[in-house]
What does this fold into?
Amino acid sequence: MARPKPDRLATNIAVRSGERVSALTTLPPAAPFAEPKLRIAETIEAARAEILELSHQIHADPEPAFEEHRAAARIADLLGVHGYEVEHPAGSLKTAIRATRRGLVGDGPRIGILAEYDALPGLGHGCGHNTMAASGVGAAIGLAAMADRLPGEIVFLGTPAEEYGSGKQIMIDDGLFEGLDAALLYHPCDRSHVETYPLASEDVEVVYRGLQSHASADPWRGKNALDALILLFTSVGLWRQQLRPTARVHGIIREGGTAANIIPHRSAAWFMIRSEDEGEYELMRDRFRQLCEAAALATDTTVTIEYTGRARTMRNNRVLADRFRANMTAYGIEDMGDDPNAGSTDMANVSWICPTIHPDLAIAPEGTPGHSILFRDAAVTPEADETTLLAATLIAQTAVDLFLDPDLVAAAWRAFHESD
Ligand SMILES: [Zn+2]
Ligand SMILES: [Zn+2]
It folds into this structure.
């Protein structure tokens, strides 16, 4: 069959093939191992209804970081149905999952299939993590169906709290990633990029404490904690001119007082600071602390600054990226090059402990902003559904490449160590 011209949306491939629901099963997968890869695609297509129902259920029932109880329960149940030995909760996080299934033909690699499922406060699934949960489960279903032909072990890791708190780092510290030979995770986007370069990042909670007083009767007795916060935002705004284009600093006010006639004695903000360079990031961290303290000095208030949830920069594994790219090209999906729009992710922390990929696949029209109502609504369209199944297929096929070719696993580890 002729290969389709490159495209960016899985639905376009599906429509062009003339058989919308079975595009992934009518086009020949990439060599090598085309036959088991076709079986993967067929298994995932056969499970289409349960995979997409999971995506839609999680989308309709959004839960923020560390509180993804219902999403995690749904995922754990489905993995149990498909023959996985499920550990939930796993480690110290109540909403983490570790589910394993041994291949039946001896020793081999341990390949990690990851899933995220947290939502954004006040927005819902504006990052499309419902599609990541469903595609991870879909990949696990596809691989489980051919466990009789695989060596090694399929390791599904349900990873909470990507949007806040870097849950994957907590799971790494809990030992849940030990022994993995690869970690594979897709992310939805408005374009398709095999390699992404997220920024080092951290959450910063800033709290100012002053002294209450009547805002008209005796304001001179007060110490205004809101003024401190306003000064901090102004300082950050001025600081931006001296920052590199690849640095980011942004925040929201959590608390700014309770009434106009009370001098606020307490104010709080949630900031994030980010950089593409870990060394520069450390300097930014110190500078931000100075800005916080300067605002406290100016307003005669006190400040506490708490950094949490450190995400690192990403080490894209070249060998895994090449294999994923070959698998997606077989379905006519174009790699649009390195993603120029960088956020941050705790998947980058995983990339420092084992070979890792975190490719983007398009679910929405190009130009749709991330973390928005538009992207949230795009995460349950037919386009998003097709991309979810595509992502499940490509992740599982890349896992098949690793399970069936020990040399590829060795090459991925060599590439991992070369980037040290
Ligand atoms: Zn996000
Ligand atoms: Zn995300």
